[in-house]
Amino acid sequence: VKDGWFHERGELWKGQAMSLEVKNILAHYRSDYQDILVFESTNHGNVLVLDGVIQVTERDEFSYQEMIAHIPLYAHPNPKKVLVIGGGDGGVLREIAKHESVEEIVICEIDKGVIDVSKKYLPTLAKGYDDPRVTVHVMDGAKFMEENQDSFDVIITDSSDPIGPASVLFETPFYNVSACVFVCFLR
């Protein structure tokens, strides 16, 4: 944050930047995995930033959360057991919980700090954690997939960009394990 503005300029998006005016810094610290910043913006509500990259703003989060959750759930004829890798802000959980057919929602988030700041500063997203069908695992998503050969009807990867702690979620071994765990609804 410089001169009252947050500026995002990442290596993945050369030639462009995103800037938001900062009203108040709510939390800023380094977790075991990444730099976590939450600030109140002047026109986008509270904003979650991980390693300098905006993850979610209260103003427009619904468009992302709804698409990443509802499309795969409606594509499956009868989703009962859903796994979310990442998604520590809880918004995807909130959307999955709207599906009455879902009996079990498992989330695996590597960074408890993301869960904690989201519950405190992004409660409209994090209310997904309040659903009794939700089980939370705080650990590496790729390792979780290797250790839990349970079957899931739908697997949603809601990760940050392919740098830092989420990079393994963009590699072939993760998708190979995911394919072994996934129960294909065409059977």
From TrEMBL:
Keywords: Polyamine biosynthesis, Transferase
InterPro entries from the UniProt entry: PABS (IPR030374), PABS_CS (IPR030373), SAM-dependent_MTases_sf (IPR029063), Spermi_synthase (IPR001045), Spermidine_synt_N (IPR035246), Spermidine_synt_N_sf (IPR037163)
GO terms, biological process: spermidine biosynthetic process
Listed transmembrane segments: none
Gene Ontology molecular functions: spermidine synthase activity
Keyword Transferase among record annotations: yes
Catalytic machinery residues: D158
Domain PABS: residue ranges: 3-187
Top-level taxon in the UniProt lineage: Eukaryota
Pfam families the UniProt entry points to: Spermine_synt_N, Spermine_synth
Family membership: Belongs to the spermidine/spermine synthase family.
Protein name per UniProt: PABS domain-containing protein
Organism: Ditylum brightwellii
